[in-house]
């Protein structure tokens, strides 16, 4: 018997990296899991197959989180197919930016980053709140740069994640009377396709982490799964740092 038997979860951006690992961790605890993807249907299909192999229901939904209407509509589509929603994990995100005061930035890319990392997440949470049961779970994936920027050229990305963490604290207050917990997981450098441990940035990133290594997606997913379980019922408005000591 899993700790999440009978629960339905959605993980946005669940076709790869931390999102896929989180979906699998929730399934390991017995949850039925929906994932969303933007442009990787084959990868999403493979994750769904891995989830179903664990004996749970699973499905993938295409949605662009930069579009608030699609982000909200995704929640409705999941509930229509699965019958309910207990756990919302907002993982989909993009990074980028540029040096403030340096070369002109791509303003369209900056606007999209804000829409994906913040506006779309808020739209999904707003759509989920009236559908979640008392005791539901809202978990958002942030970044260690929301606490410690650490490098030049991070202002735009840092701003989106800091906004998400501030919203989550406020939402935790607003929803506490229903027992709905709202928490943030703050990863450090994680070995993913977008930021591989053997990539060119590793020489710069690794010295900033106390443990001197990149994290694995499964290590972040373990924190997500814990926050979704009944054992985390008294944890809300929290930032769970899983960063190898980046913020130490």
TrEMBL record:
Keyword Protein biosynthesis among record annotations: no
Species per Swiss-Prot/TrEMBL record: Allonocardiopsis opalescens
Molecular function in Gene Ontology: oxidoreductase activity
Keyword Cell wall biogenesis/degradation in record: no
PANTHER family, per the entry: OXIDOREDUCTASE, SHORT-CHAIN DEHYDROGENASE/REDUCTASE FAMILY (AFU_ORTHOLOGUE AFUA_5G02870), SHORT-CHAIN DEHYDROGENASE_REDUCTASE FAMILY PROTEIN
Annotated protein name in UniProt: NAD(P)-dependent dehydrogenase (Short-subunit alcohol dehydrogenase family)
Listed Pfam families: adh_short_C2
Family under the similarity heading: Belongs to the short-chain dehydrogenases/reductases (SDR) family.
InterPro entries according to UniProt: NAD(P)-bd_dom_sf (IPR036291), SDR_fam (IPR002347)
Keywords, sorted A to Z: Oxidoreductase
């Amino acid at each position: 018997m899993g700790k999440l038997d009978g629960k339905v979860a959605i993980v946005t951006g669940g076709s790869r990296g931390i999102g896929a690992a989180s979906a699998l961790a929730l399934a390991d605890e017995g949850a039925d899991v929906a994932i969303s993807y933007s442009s990787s249907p084959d990868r999403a299909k493979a994750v769904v197959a891995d989830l179903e192999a664990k004996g749970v229901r699973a499905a993938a939904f295409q949605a662009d989180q930069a579009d608030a209407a699609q982000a909200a509509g995704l929640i409705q589509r999941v509930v229509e197919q699965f019958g309910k929603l207990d756990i919302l994990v907002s993982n989909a995100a993009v990074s980028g930016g540029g040096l403030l005061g340096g070369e002109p930035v791509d303003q369209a890319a900056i606007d999209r980053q804000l829409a994906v990392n913040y506006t779309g997440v808020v739209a999904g949470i707003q759509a989920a709140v009236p559908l979640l049961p008392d005791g539901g779970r809202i978990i958002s994936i942030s970044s260690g740069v929301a606490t410690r920027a650490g490098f030049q050229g991070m202002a735009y990305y840092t701003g989106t994640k800091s906004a998400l963490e501030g919203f989550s604290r406020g939402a935790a207050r607003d929803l506490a009377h229903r027992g709905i917990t709202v928490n943030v997981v703050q990863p450090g450098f994680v070995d993913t396709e977008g930021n591989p441990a053997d990539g060119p940035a590793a020489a710069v990133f690794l010295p900033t982490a106390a443990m001197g290594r990149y994290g694995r997606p499964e290590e972040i997913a373990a924190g997500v799964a814990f926050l979704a379980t009944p054992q985390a019922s008294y944890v809300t408005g929290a930032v769970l740092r899983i960063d190898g000591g980046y913020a130490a």
